[in-house]
Amino acid sequence: MKKLKGSTGVKVIAILLCFITLVLAVGSAVAIALLADHGFYTTPREAILEEQMTDILVNNSTKAVSYYNSAYSDPEHEFKYTNFFYTIKDDEGRILSTNYNDEDVSYTYTASVYYTDTYGLTLDEKQNSEIQYSITSSISRDLKYKDTIYYMSYGINTGYAWRYGIIAVGIASLISNILIFAFLMCAAGHRKGKDEIVPNIIDKIPFDLYTLILVAIACIQVTASGSGYFDTVLNIIITGVFVVIDFLLCISYCMSFATRIKTGGLFKKTLIFLTLKFIWKCLKAIGRAITGLVKAIPLIWKTLLVIGGVWIMSIILTVSIYRQAEAAILFLFFALFCASIIAIIVTLNMKSLKKAGERISYGDLTYVVDTRNMFFEFKKHGEALNSISKGMSKAVDERMKSEHFKTELITNVSHDLKTPLTSIINYIDLIKKEDLDNETLKGYVEVLERQSARLKKLTEDLVEASKASTGNLKIEAAPCELGVMLAQTVGEYDEKLKDKDLELVINKPDDPVSIMADGKYLWRIFDNLMNNICKYAQPSTRVYLDLEVKNHKAFIVFRNISHNALNVPGDELMERFVRGDSARNTEGSGLGLSIAKSLAELQKGKMNIIVDGDLFKLVLIFDII
Amino acid sequence: MYNILICDDEKDIVAALKIYLCAEGYNVFLAYNGREALQVVAKNEIHLVLLDIMMPEMDGITAMAKLREDHNLPIILLTAKGEDTDKILGLNVGADDYITKPFNPVEVLARVRSQIRRYTQLGCNIKAEQQSFYTVGGIEMNDKAREVTIDGEPVSLTPTEYDILKLMMQHKGEVLSPKEIYRNVWKDEFYAAESTIAVHIRHLREKIEINPAEPRYLKVVWAQGYKLEGGSVI
Fold first, then answer.
1. Number of domains in chain B
2. pLDDT per residue over A292-334, tens digit each?
3. Looking at residue A308, what is its pLDDT?
C-alpha cells in the first residue's frame, strides 16, 4: 500500500480512472433521469414508442404542410428517403401531394389543416367547418432509411433494454469513483521512498489564494458557457477539453487540501494568516520600540513626564467641564479607574519586593522574586534582588565547602601523624623494657618518651582546635547545673592541685545555677582551664573559682597568680599557639585557651581574659535558664 | 594459651604489638589487611582479633561485618579515627571495644585480657540469680562477702568507695547527682561536700577502669552527676 501511495504512475492511473468513473457515473445519472422522465420505468415499451412516434408524426406533418404551402420547397422531395409517409388531400378527398406507395406502415396520424389569422396554418385532429385540407401521415414498419425516426426507435429500444443495466453501471461507477477518490486523498503528499508528507509546489500556494483562483476560473467558465451552445462538433470538443481541465483542477485542489491537512498547516499557509502574522509582528516591533524608548528614559524624567501628563490632562478636563460636562465626567471616571489599577499593580509589586528583601535580610538566600508579572523599574529591582541572593548563596556555599575541606584536611593529616606516632610511642616503650646499662641512654629515652607524649597531645589538640573554631562539632545542649560542674571539676583536679600545693577557694551561691550547654564540651573548657592553672600558677598560692549570677547571666571566674610574668595582653593569649611564657619551654600546645574560647562560643557563651600584673583572671559568661 | 590475630597495614605497629602480646604469653597470628584477616580466622582457632579500620583491599569495618556473620569472638578496633561517629559505627557493626591511636601498650594488654576473660569465663554466669549479687558488664559484686571483681580480677575498695559503687550498681544506667549519692551513702543532709564525692568517684574510677580518662562503666555526666553503665566505650 505504501509503495502504491508513493508511486507517481499509480497516481496518474488513479486520476484517469477517477475521471472515467466520474464521467460514467454522471452519464448514468443523466441517462437514468432522462429515462425516468420519459416513463421508461413506469410504462411499457409500446406506449413509449407510440408516444414518441406520434410526436414525430405531428412534427413532420406540420413540416410537410408548411413545405406544401411554400413556393420554394416540395414535401415529396423533402421526405423522399425517409421512413415518413404522408398524404395531403383537399376537402373533397382528392390527393394533392403524397409519397406513400402502399408500403407496410405503422402509427398512422390524421389531422385537418386549417388556417387562423393568429397562428397561420394549424393542424387539428378535430374536423370543423373551416377545413381547407387534411393530412394523413404514417411511419414505415421496416424502417428502411437511417433517419431520425430510425434512430429514435433504435434509441428507445436500446434504452428500454438497458433501463436497469444503466442503474447498475451508475452505482458501480459511483462506488469505484468514491474508492479511487479516497485512495487519492490518502496518497496525497506521499513520495516514493519517503515516510513523511512532502508538499509539492501547489501545496505551497496560500490556501485561500488557491481557492480564490479556482473560484475565479469556475466563474469565467460559467459566464462563457452561458452564451455557447453544443451545436457544433468544435464546441463539443472545447467543452470536453474544459471538463477534463476542470476535473484535473478539482482533483489537484482536493489532493492539495488533503496534503495540507496531513501536514497540519492548512490555516497557517493562508494569505490571511500570513498577513495577520505580519501585522502582529509589526505591532510587536512597534511596541518593543516604544517600551525600549520608555525604558531608556531615566526614572526621574519618567516620573516628571507622567506628572506633566497628569497635569495637562487635568487642565484639559477642567476646561472641558464647562463645554461638555457629561463627557468630561465620564473621562474623569475612566482616568480614576486606570489610576486605581496602576496603584494596585504598584502595591502588589512593592509588596513582593518588600517580602523578598525581608527574606534575604533574614538569611534565606534561596528565596527568588517572581519577576514575571512585574513592570519597568520594579522588574529591574526584583532581578537585582535575585542576583544578590544568588551571589550571596554562592559565596556562602563556597565558604562552607572550604571550611569542610579544611576540617577534612586536618582530620586526614592528624590521622597520618598518629600512625607513625603510635609506632614511636610503642618502640620507645619497648626500648625502656630492654636492660639498659648505659645511664645516659636511659636519660635520652626519657626525653623521647616525654616529647612523643607531647607530640601526641599536640596532634589531638590541633584537631580539636580546628573543629571547634570552624564549628564542626555537634553541640547537644541540655540543662547543666554549674554547681555540680564545679564540684566535679574540683574532684578531678584535687590531686593535681595538691601536687603543686595550690589551694582552691570556691565561692558559689546556695541556689543551683543552670545553663544550656553540652556537658561534654563544657567539661573540655573546664579541663583546659584547670590544666592551665596547674601548669602556670605560682605554686603554694590560692586559686579562686567563683560562680556569680548577674542580670540573668552566669559568670564563672577563674583567678590565679601566674608563675611567669605575663607580658602578653589577655586577648592575645586566646589566639592559637600563643603562650604566656615567651620562652615556650613548658609543655603544652598553646591551643588550650583557643579551644576553650571556641567551645564557649559554640555553646553561646563568652570567654574574657584580664591580665593585671601577675593576676590572671578568666571569665566565662553564659545565659542562665 | 589463647590465639590472638593482629591486623594492621602498618607493619611496625603489628611487630610492636606482637612483642607485647607474646611477652604476655599469647599465641599471635598476623594479617595486613581485612582479606588476610578473614583467611586467618577461617583456618585457625582465634580467640580475639585486634583490627585496624583503615587498611588497603578490605577495610576493618567490612572485615568485621563478614567476621560477625559466623563468629562470636571478641573484636577490638584499633584505629587512628578518633571521632565519636567512627566509634559508634564500629560498635554498631559489632566491635566489643575500641582503642584509638596512638595507644598505650599497657592499655591494649589490659583490654585484651579483659575481653578474653569475659569471652572464656563469664559466658555462663550461674551466680546471677542470687539476691546479694550484683553485676554490671564485667563488674561483679558479692554483697555478703563485700567483694568486687572486674572481669574476674578482685579489686580492693575502701568502705566509702564500696558503698558508692553498690549504690550505683543498684541504680544501673541512672544519672545520680552528688546530692543523691551523699544522702544515700552518708545518710546525712547534703552540705558542701560535693567535691568530696567527686574525689571518691575519681578514685573509684581509677580502680575499676582500664583507662580512667575513657571510662567504660563509671561515667561522668558533666554538670549533672554520675552514671554506671554496662560497658561500652562511648
1. 2
2. 887 777 778 888 888 898 898 888 888 877 777 777 788 888 8
3. 92
Chain A: give the shortest CA distance to residue B16, in Å.
Answer: 6
Strand partners, A139: A84, A106
Instruction: Identify the residue whose cell numbers are 457629561.
Output: A326
Q: Which three cell numbers stand for residue A528?
A: 583546659
Q: CB of B73 within 8 A of CB of B64?
A: no
Position B126 scores a pLDDT of 45
Rounded to a whole number of angstroms, the distance from the CA of B122 to the nearest CA of chain A is 31
Backbone angles phi, psi at B46, to 5 degrees: -105, 140
Domain match, B198 and B171 both? yes
Distance from CA of B215 to the nearest CA of A (A): 13
Return the C-alpha cell found at A609.
581574659
B58 and B161 assigned to the same domain: no
Q: In this complex, do A484 and B224 lie within 8 Å of one another by their Cβ atoms? A: yes
Rounded to two decimals, the pTM is 0.52
Measured CB to CB, residues of chain B less than 8 Å from chain A are 10, 12-13, 16-17, 19-20, 54, 80-83, 101-105, 177-178, 194-202, 220-225
Q: What is the mean pLDDT of chain A?
A: 82
Q: Which CATH number fits domain A396-472: 3.90.700, 2.60.40, 2.30.30, 1.10.287?
A: 1.10.287
A418 and B19 within 8 Å at the Cβ level: the answer is: no
Interface ipTM: 0.74
CB contacts of B199 in chain A (<8 Å) are 490-491, 494
Q: What is the mean pLDDT of residues A529-556?
A: 89
The domain that contains B75 carries what CATH number? Answer: 3.40.50.2300
Higher-confidence position of A42 and A526: A526
In angstroms, the CA A22 to CA A382 distance is 70
Domain assignment present for residue B64? The answer is yes
On whether both B7 and B110 belong to a single domain, the answer is yes
CATH code reported for the domain at A474-623: 3.30.565.10
- Say which of A414, A415, A485 has its CB closest to residue B223: A485
Beta-carbon separation of A427 and B198 below 8 A: no
* A18 alpha-carbon distance from chain centroid: 43
CB–CB contacts below 8 A, A to B: 105
Q: What are phi and psi of A233, to 5 degrees?
A: -60, -40
Residue A52 neighbours by CB under 8 Å, 6+ apart: A152, A156
Over residues A391-430, the pLDDT tens digits come to: 888 888 898 888 778 777 877 887 888 888 888 988 998 8
Short-list B175, B166, B171, B177, CA closest to B208? B166
pLDDT at residue A242 greater than cutoff 60: yes
The mean pLDDT of chain B is 83
State the residue range of the domain holding B165. Answer: 127-228
Inter-chain CB proximity B101 and A426 less than 8 Å: no
pLDDT band, very low/low/confident/very high, at B234 (cuts 50, 70, 90): very low
Which of A410, A412, A413, A423 has the highest number of chain B CBs within 10 A, making it the mutation to test binding with B? A423
Q: In the listed set B69, B97, B120, which residue is the last one of a domain according to the structure?
A: B120
Q: Are A64 and A98 in contact (CB under 8 A)?
A: no
Closest chain A C-alpha to B45 CA, distance in angstroms: 28
Q: What is the DSSP letter of B115?
A: H
> B164 Cβ partners below 8 Å, 6+ apart?
B181, B185, B197, B200, B201, B204
List beta partners, residue A618. A558, A609
